[in-house]
Amino acid sequence: MPRSTAAEDAAALGGGEQASRLLRAAFRRSAAGVWVVTASAPDGSPVGFTATSLASVAAEPAVVSFNIGSSSSSWPVLASAAQVAVHVVGEHQVELAERFARRGADRFAPPTRWHRGVTGVPVLEEVPAWMLCRIVARVPAADHRVVLAEVLEGDASGPGRPLVHHEQRFAALRD
């Protein structure tokens, strides 16, 4: 029996809502690293959000990507920001991940510990790793944007192990 092509499979699914449900179900089955992306608005106010879509794109030059919804409260700032900081969230920071994922939360109020980096971008404290990045492209993708950013500097020697997201919950790694 001949194998179907990806296009034939997509057509058989009917696309639309059924494909969207399948995508969500499949990605719930996969564990993802938890990151917080931060930036500064033109008036200096900090913005940020929790992301599980961060990926390494290239090593030379070092480029990462992440996705952000066009309806996200952080998108208006990221649409024109020159730089962002991306932070690996640690197992000890579930509350931080939840705070940055919650709409309407004052994400940078205590107990969030952060400071401004040398370029003014908010840098979270006590994370396992963080990188300051220069945004090089914003690519429209349906109701989201894929942001490509070149790594400039950072620190990967912070405390703890990474937090993961699986089955719509935050979880710790098991040995």
Gyration radius, rounded: 17 Å
Instruction: Determine and state the CATH class of the largest domain.
Output: Mainly Beta
For the largest beta sheet, what order do the strands appear in spatially?
3-2-6-9-10-5-4
The total domain count is 2
Structural shape: globular
Helix content: 10-25%
Strand content: 35-45%
Which architecture name of the largest domain does CATH use?
Roll
Estimate the mean pLDDT confidence: 91
* Structural class computed from helices and strand pairing: alpha+beta
**Number of beta-strand segments:** 12
At the fourth level of CATH, the homologous superfamily of the largest domain is Electron Transport, Fmn-binding Protein, Chain A
Number of helices: 4
Biggest beta sheet attributes:
7 strands, antiparallel
Keywords: Oxidoreductase
Protein name: Flavin reductase family protein
Organism: Streptomyces tardus
InterPro entries: Flavin_Rdtase-like_dom, NADH-dep_flavin_reductase, Split_barrel_FMN-bd
Question: What's the structural blueprint in terms of helices and strands?
Answer:
Elements: H1 6-13, H2 16-28, E1 32-33, E2 35-40, E3 46-51, E4 55-59, E5 62-69, H3 75-78, E6 83-88, H4 94-101, E7 114-116, E8 122-124, E9 129-141, E10 144-155, E11 163-166, E12 169-172
Antiparallel strand pairs: 1-11, 2-3, 2-6, 4-5, 5-10, 6-9, 7-8, 9-10, 11-12
